[in-house]
Amino acid sequence: MEVCNCIEPQWPADELLMKYQYISDxxxxxxxxxxxxxxxxxxxxSAVFPxxxxxxxxxxxxxxxxxxxxxxxxxxxxxxxxxxxxxxxAKVLTAVVSCATALMLVHIIPDLLxxxxxxxxxxxxxxxLDREMGLIRTQEETGRHVRMLTHEIxxxxxxxxxxxxxxxxxxRTLALEECALWMPTRTGLELQLSYTLRQQHxxxxxxxxxxPVISQVFATSRAVKISPNSPVARLRPVSGxxxxxxxxxxxxxxLHLSNFQINDWPELSTKRxxxxxxxxxxxxxxxWHVHELELVEVVADQVAVALSHAAILEESMRARxxxxxxxxxxxxxxxxxxxxxxxxxxxxxxxxxxxxxPMHAIIALxxxxxxxxxxxxxxxxxxxxxxxxxxxxxxxxxxxxxxRLEDGSLQLDLGTFNLHTLFREVLNxxxxxxxxxxxxxxxxxxxxxxxxxxxxxxxxxxxxxNIVGNAVKFSKxxxxxxxxxxxxxxxxxxxxxxxxxxxxxxxxxxxxxxxAGINPQEIPxxxxxxxxxxxxxxxxxxGSGLGLAISKRxxxxxxxxxxxxxxxxxxxxxxxxxxKLGISNESSVPKAPASPRHANxxxxxxxxxxxxxxxxxxxxxxxxxxxxxxxxxxTSEECLRVVSHEHKVVxxxxxxxxxxxYRIENYQxxxxxxxxxxxxxxxxxxxxxxxxxxxxSTKEKCMSxxxxxxxxxxxxxxxxxxxxxxxxxxxxxxxxx
Length: 737
Description:
The protein folds into four domains: about 30-105, no CATH class; about 150-235 and about 240-320, GAF domain (Beta-Lactamase); about 410-490 and about 500-530 and about 545-585, 2-Layer Sandwich (Heat Shock Protein 90), CATH 3.30.565; about 605-735, 3-Layer(aba) Sandwich (Rossmann fold). It is built from 17 helices and 19 strands. It has helices at about 10-45, 50-70, 80-155, 160-175, 210-220, 290-370, 375-405, 420-435, 455-475, 535, 545-555, 615-625, 635-640, 660-665, 670-675, 695-705, 715-730; strands spanning about 180-185, 190-195, 205-210, 225, 245-255, 275-280, 415-420, 440-445, 450-455, 480-485, 505-515, 560-565, 575-585, 605-610, 630-635, 650-655, 685-690, 710, 735. The longest helix has about 80 residues, at about 290-370. GO terms for molecular function: ATP binding; ethylene binding; ethylene receptor activity; metal ion binding; phosphorelay sensor kinase activity. One of its GO terms (biological process) is negative regulation of ethylene-activated signaling pathway. Its main location: endoplasmic reticulum. It is found in: Endoplasmic reticulum membrane.
């Protein structure tokens, strides 16, 4: 049997399929070989991919697959064993590489998944950051609007401007259709429509403050959405509107008004709020955003702060205006008081000078008349004239002292004096009157009472004389005792406490009488000027009612206290006063008596310069009676022409109305006399000012212009004799003024 090794011819269809497979394998091989090129390019360009070796392995797999398809092209025809071997090797390598790649992907896929997870996380973070950045931008925009609104609101401190500006700026910033402000009424029971954005003159519409919607807004500090149909939101026309815009309301805290009553704001101190209503445009889908609500809340707080500042400013301006009015009134009252004081002082100065000039004549002539031979009846008349004149002079001194005390111009003239001697001199002055009235007077000085003290001797004597004189004046029977001691603190002096030191002490003086006494209800009136109690006024004792008033002021000036005690009418009374005195370092041993005074002035040449003819004649009469040779001059020029070295004393009136600007010019006469005797100073006469002015400035001016002494009118014969003796002995004379 013969074997046939021939191959059956293939079907044309099969050949066609083989051709298609051949062409496909070729293109597949080309495609496979192109993929590694792309991978190589990708690996070369990528510096961050962590698995390059995986890509290399995957590229080898692709190359082997392409090589397999390429080798397969030679298998479609008769091929040698070498081709089959190469084909087998390529497929084995491809299978190995493909398995290795599959195994590696098992480890790589979780990492790839984690990378994907991180990528999603980063995307979410990026989205969240975008939202936060948007929120920050919104907040920045809100802050910008708030700063702008705050600047506009605080650019003025007028509350009406603040509220109107708030509505305008909110309406512009938030594009509002309407914005309104409801203010509490004076009673605090209603809210009144006070300001609106669109209406220039809003109707004074009120709503009860107890409405639920108002209570809801007032209960929180946040902006609250309310119904567009609520009573506080029905402010815009609704005709033709399909949908009203959203409405929010927020409270505006008002300042506690317990101390500020600002126009129509409530005066109560309880917490009160205004209501601000904001409306979005109608027929729009716009809604309120969170940042817009925050903007409204912040603006409400800023408005509250601005209103509080405005309230404080308004109150301060009212207080300032009131203070200015009070200052103007006080300044006017001060000027009027100063004018009145100047007028009073000028009047008193003129009256003092004009009254002392005739008083000088009366007392001087009466004292001269007393030196002549008189019948008992005439002598009694002259003594009565002298007593009346002295009483009138005392009244003048009291009025002037009171005037100085009231305007504060009176000052104490401090000096060292003998306190024990002062009390004895007072009793020596009072005893003649007491003897006539048969009233025994006793003086009790405490053993520890200092003898030499520092104080105003004249004022202290005046106080004691007033009090002891009143005791004698208002007592018809009984006795009077005067006690002086060092005061130690007790409870008897009302509202008066002392703190003695080593340099001063407090003197207490008690003057007790057993006379008619005083009604306790009338005691406070005793220290009122020009006033007397009814029980004293009914007595025939006279008096001006100035003694105790002046004594009280003198005591107060000496940092002391004075009061009167009495158990009633018919039981007597006790006057007590305390004054502060300094402790003197001088010895308690009495000083040696002064040398005898000059009693004989025969031949003493004296010049008298006085514009007033009566006063000039009276002064000349006193000096002539004492034996002096007197020359008179009526003007300063005549005085300068007449004065010579033969004159020992020149009495000159320093208040001569005939000299222009006499208050200064008349003092300059002394300077011109000094110039006249410049080369013969030892022959210059002694210059003594004769004046009716009792103010301290007169004494100071006399000393500053070189006068050697001051003599106060009126002057009696004994007074003139003592003045000349002191002047010739000490060559200086300054009476206490």
